């Protein structure tokens, strides 16, 4: 840390006018976050002139890194035409067509401005379509900040209710009753979940699931678990919602295509906006038009939004999604394989107590072995490995001081702007960091 640095001074200024110094918890890290000045492809330059490889990519939304010339040109072109207007534009149809063509379960889509809204709309769609109240979600899974979706995202281990009760806990600040209509499931617990869903079958509107849960150390939902969710929801007359805000990049047509599971409703965000704010909900024409088509007085859910499908986001999204074609998708996944293989090799070579997780263009390195699938098991892993968060912090700071911006809890997110050399630099520095941590020198 350098208290005389521009970043440190900006943070002091920010603390005067914003609680915690920011509008987004995840940008903070101690002792002060570095402030960004500009981005270029895989690189980000901070306000002190230091250049680093960006392996966060705005929490996975920048599929082509920073300022891809074609995305920037599309934004500039649109900015010269119009940025926001109370009329629909063709760009909205274009982006909808691209996404509907790629996602087997999505015939129709509606846009909003954040993944949080995409998930919120998915939940409303399910409740309006089924006329039922309960949403089931997985304990510890982050789905944005809608009250329902946020239930039991970070429950305190001292407050766990018995898993077979399905009882959730509202997040601080949520409506006190927000957990009353939520059923909390344990990740990958096939039989326990089946019984819980059946016990609430007549009131169950939908199960909300993210197929790769970032804050469960990238625990993937097992095929067995997802297949059970698909079968049970169908049998109970409930809907299956995939939260693909984060996971869309796992398959060319989203994680659903990769996994061979068809959701009824899909929440989207991040990469589809080409780096500008976006969220969306999509599904079959049967469900979507029953809920949202305002002609003939059919609509059951009112859906407005001053900036929904704003032309700037739509133009950036069209440019980005066109560039993210199959060859680009496949090349990016090969870089992801290279990174995970390389990280696994340095973990083995150093004998570090760590595990490598992730899929496609996402990799995670977590400082404990063995994992644990559920939030509760991971909480126990953390209790049994009290030095985990200190190691993660040392690792993060080593990477930061050696040219790599990564996700604090231990993740790396690739973009098409990355090269093999960029990936190899991460692997080399990860190896050094693990050696230093082991030797107690980091
Ligand atoms: N769902 C998932 C799985 C996410 O990862 C996120 C964001 N990290 C969200 C929803 C919320 O998206 P946004 O931040 O755009 O509101």
Task: Set out the fold topology.
Layout: H1 6-17, E1 36-40, E2 43-46, E3 51-54, H2 57-60, H3 69-81, H4 90-102, E4 108-112, H5 115-130, E5 134-138, H6 147-150, E6 182-185, H7 190-199, E7 204-209, E8 212-213, E9 219-220, H8 223-236, E10 239-243, H9 254-259, E11 265-269, E12 279-283, H10 285-292, H11 311-323, H12 326-350, E13 355-359, E14 362-366, H13 375-384, H14 388-400, E15 404-405, E16 411-413, H15 420-438
Parallel strand pairs: 3-15, 5-6, 5-7, 7-10, 10-11
Antiparallel strand pairs: 1-2, 2-3, 4-12, 8-9, 11-12, 13-14, 14-16
Helix pairs in contact: 3-11, 4-11, 5-10, 7-8, 12-15, 14-15
The protein binds 4'-deoxy-4'-aminopyridoxal-5'-phosphate.
Question: Overview of this structure, please?
Answer:
Belongs to the class-III pyridoxal-phosphate-dependent aminotransferase family. InterPro entries: Aminotrans_3, PyrdxlP-dep_Trfase, PyrdxlP-dep_Trfase_major, PyrdxlP-dep_Trfase_small. Its cofactor is pyridoxal 5'-phosphate. The protein has 442 residues and is of the alpha/beta class. It has 2 domains: 34-63 and 325-438, Aspartate Aminotransferase, domain 1, CATH 3.90.1150.10; 69-323, Type I PLP-dependent aspartate aminotransferase-like (Major domain) (Aspartate Aminotransferase, domain 2). It contains 15 helices and 16 strands. Strands 4-12-11-10-7-5-6 form a 7-stranded mixed sheet, sandwiched between helices. A 4-stranded mixed sheet has the order 1-2-3-15. A 3-stranded antiparallel sheet has the order 13-14-16. Strand 5, helix 6 and strand 6 (182-185) form a beta-alpha-beta unit. Helix 3 (69-81) runs antiparallel to helix 11 (311-323), helix 5 packs across helix 10 (285-292) and helix 14 (388-400) packs across helix 15 (420-438). Bound molecules: 4'-deoxy-4'-aminopyridoxal-5'-phosphate. 4'-deoxy-4'-aminopyridoxal-5'-phosphate binds at residues 59, 114-116, 119, 142-144, 210, 214, 243, 245-246, 269, 279.
């Amino acid at each position: 840390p350098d208290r005389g640095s521009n970043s440190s001074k900006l943070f002091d200024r920010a603390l005067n006018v914003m609680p915690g110094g920011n509008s987004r918890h995840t940008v903070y890290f101690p002792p002060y976050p570095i402030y960004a000045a500009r981005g270029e492809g895989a690189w980000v330059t901070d306000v002190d002139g230091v250049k680093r490889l960006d392996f966060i990519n705005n929490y996975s939304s920048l599929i082509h890194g920073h300022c891809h010339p074609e995305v920037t040109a599309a934004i500039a072109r649109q900015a010269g035409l119009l940025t926001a207007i109370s009329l629909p534009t063709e760009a909205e149809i274009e982006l909808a067509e691209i996404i509907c063509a790629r996602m087997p379960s999505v015939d129709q889509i509606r846009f909003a401005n954040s993944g949080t809204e995409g998930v919120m709309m998915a939940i409303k769609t399910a409740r309006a379509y089924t006329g039922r109240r309960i949403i089931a979600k997985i304990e510890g899974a982050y789905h944005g900040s809608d009250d329902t979706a946020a239930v039991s995202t970070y429950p305190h281990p001292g407050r766990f209710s018995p898993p077979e009760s399905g009882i959730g806990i509202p997040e601080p600040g949520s409506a006190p009753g927000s957990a009353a209509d939520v059923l909390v499931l344990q990740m990958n617990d096939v039989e326990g979940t089946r019984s819980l869903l059946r016990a609430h079958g007549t009131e169950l509107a939908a199960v909300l699931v993210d197929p790769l849960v970032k804050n469960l150390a990238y625990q993937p939902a097992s095929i067995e678990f997802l297949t059970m969710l698909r079968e049970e929801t169908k049998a109970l007359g409930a809907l299956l919602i995939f939260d693909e805000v984060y996971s869309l990049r796992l398959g060319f047509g989203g994680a659903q295509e990769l996994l061979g599971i068809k959701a009824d409703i899909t929440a989207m965000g991040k990469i589809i906006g080409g780096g500008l704010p976006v969220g969306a909900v999509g599904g079959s024409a049967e469900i979507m038009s029953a809920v949202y088509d305002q002609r003939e007085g059919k609509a059951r859910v009112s859906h407005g939004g001053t900036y929904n499908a704003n032309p700037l986001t739509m133009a950036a999204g069209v440019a980005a999604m066109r560039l993210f074609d199959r060859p680009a998708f496949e090349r990016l996944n090969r870089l992801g394989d290279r990174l995970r293989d390389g990280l696994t090799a340095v973990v083995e070579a150093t004998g570090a107590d760590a595990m490598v997780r992730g899929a496609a263009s996402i990799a995670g390195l977590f400082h404990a072995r063995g994992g644990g699938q559920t939030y509760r098991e991971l909480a126990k892993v953390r209790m049994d490995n009290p030095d985990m968060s200190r190691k993660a912090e040392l690792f993060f700071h080593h990477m930061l001081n050696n040219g790599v911006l990564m996700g604090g809890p231990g993740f790396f997110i690739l973009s098409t702007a990355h090269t093999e050399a960029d990936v190899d630099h991460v692997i080399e520095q990860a190896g050094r960091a693990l050696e230093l941590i082991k030797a107690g020198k980091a």
